[in-house]
Structure formats: C-alpha cells, structure tokens
C-alpha cells in the first residue's frame, strides 16, 4: 500500500535528534516498498537538511531518491488547479503550495495515507478528504 511523505516526515527520518525520528523511522521501514515523495516536498527537505544537519544529510536524502528508496511523484498538470482550490478552501489554515499539493497528489494518485508531523494542517485536511495520517 502506498504512502505519501510530507516534508516533516522526511526531515524527521533523517534527523536522529528530531522528536518524531523514532516514529518516522519505524513507519518508513515498515512501508519501504510504497514510499512516495511528492516532488514539491524535495526543495523543502533539501533546505532543512542542509541548514540544520549539513551537506552530508542532504546527500543521504539524494541517495534515497537516486537509489529508488523513494518514488518521486510529480504533480500532473491538472492538479495545479486543484492545489489552488484546496489552498483557497482552507485559507484560514494558510496551507501553502506544498501541503495543498500533497492533498491534490493524494487525490490524483488515489492514495489515502500520508506520513506527516504537521498535525495542525493535516488533521483538518484528513477529516475533509478521508486521509489516514501516520504515525
């Protein structure tokens, strides 16, 4: 079964000092065959890893992508309109492009499961769009 990974989930996986690390490590190991990284998440993860942990952690992330540990999913062209609609629908949450794109991609790929550390944004999204949040 497929699992979409948000920025916080991926960051926590690589940062052993992150409070979500142990949980994300377990989730990612358990779901190893169906991990999907939405393409819009990559620049955020790259920035956070580089700024907080250094270049070696960024390269470890790249290796995960290159080595097919993660499947990278681009947004289909028609999903950009959906991103804008989701962002507008949840304007009070100030979602932003990346979180809205994760939901649009979940709908496009028909994937219900999202690994996230961002409960503030994703809890209301989950109840509206029938998403299952992990861990």
Describe the structure.
This protein has 135 residues and is of the alpha/beta class. It has a single domain, classed as 5'-nuclease (Rossmann fold). Helix content is 57%, strand content 12%. It has seven helices and five strands. Strands 3-2-1-4-5 form a five-stranded parallel β-sheet, with helices on both faces. Helix 1 crosses helix 2. The longest helix has 13 residues. It is globular and about 40 Å long. The relative contact order is 0.20. The mean pLDDT is 97.
Proportion of helical residues: 55-70%
Mean pLDDT comes to: 97
Which fold does the CATH topology refer to? Rossmann fold
- Helical stretch tally: 7
Q: Specify Rg, calculated over alpha carbons.
A: 14 Å
Unreliable stretches covering 5 or more consecutive residues: none
Instruction: Determine and state the CATH class.
Output: Alpha Beta
Envelope shape: globular
Which strand order do you get reading across the main beta sheet? 3-2-1-4-5
CATH superfamily: 5'-nuclease
The number of domains is 1
CATH 2nd-level architecture: 3-Layer(aba) Sandwich
Largest sheet: 5 strands, parallel
Measured by DSSP, the beta-strand proportion falls in 5-15%
End-to-end distance: 15 Å
Order of helices and strands: EHHEHHEHHEHE
**Topology, number of strands:** 5
Output the structural class: alpha/beta
């Amino acid at each position: 079964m497929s699992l979409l990974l948000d920025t916080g989930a991926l960051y926590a996986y690589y940062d052993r000092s992150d409070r979500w690390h142990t949980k994300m490590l377990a989730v990612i190991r358990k779901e190893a065959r169906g991990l999907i990284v939405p393409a819009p998440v990559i620049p955020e993860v790259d920035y956070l890893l580089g700024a907080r942990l250094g270049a070696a952690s960024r390269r470890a992330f790249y290796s995960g992508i290159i080595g097919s540990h993660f499947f990278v999913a681009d947004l289909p062209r028609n999903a950009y309109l959906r991103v804008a609609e989701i962002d507008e629908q949840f304007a009070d949450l100030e979602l932003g492009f990346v979180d809205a794109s994760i939901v649009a991609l979940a709908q496009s790929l028909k994937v219900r499961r999202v690994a996230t550390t961002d409960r503030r944004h994703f809890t209301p999204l989950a109840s509206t769009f029938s998403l299952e949040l992990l861990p």
